[in-house]
Amino acid sequence: MKADQYVTVAREGVHESEINRSRFLCSLAPAATEQEAQDFVARIRKEHPTATHNCFAYVVGADASVQKASDDGEPGGTAGVPMLQMLMRRDVRYAVAVVTRYYGGVKLGAGGLIRAYGGVVGEALDELGTVTRRRYRLATVTVDHQRAGKTQNDLRSTGRTVVDLRYGSAVEIEVALPEADLPAFEAWLADTTAGSAALTLGGETYAP
């Protein structure tokens, strides 16, 4: 079952927190693929070669099909897993988090580490902001040139999202529709164009 919507990171950025003299820097970024997530982790590690730990977690796929986490030398399950749990709890997808720790001389204990690593990811999400992407079905409306302008205006005035326009022997207007809206849209289109428009259903996309 595909997710109807998910949340992702609005932009790349860093949030810093100090806990018992240890510095925790959470670097967050959107990641469209697992490779992008891995490249981001490698980049942050290069930027902080003297850090005590560079732990990471990422989630790729609207249905969270790819999930990875690393404790990078912290006690097992005290860093990467709580980071991943925070991303999942917030419904965050297509995102990567790296928490860089500079040890300050005070041991935090397992519970303290779990709270610190999970907490700094939550704070970074709050600070950098998130965007919600909803699932839409792509549909192509094909009309003749005479009706194209009016049909486009009608689509926009009823709040439909026009994704693409293609001009050929006829005009193809690609729109993104919520799945539940399809039957009503078909009826509306037939009515608006007096039955002269053709509708072809395509794949799915996620958009704000």
From TrEMBL:
InterPro entries linked: EFG_III/V (IPR035647), Impact (IPR023582), Impact_N (IPR001498), Impact_N_sf (IPR036956), Impact_YigZ-like (IPR015796), Ribosomal_Su5_D2-typ_SF (IPR020568), UPF0029_Impact_C (IPR015269), UPF0029_Impact_CS (IPR020569)
Domain Impact N-terminal: 21-125
Domain of life, source organism: Bacteria
Ranges in coiled-coil conformation: none
Signal peptide: none
Domain UPF0029 per the UniProt entry, residue ranges: 141-195
Family to which the UniProt record says this protein belongs: Belongs to the IMPACT family.
Protein name: YigZ family protein
Lineage: Bacteria, Bacillati, Actinomycetota, Actinomycetes, Kitasatosporales
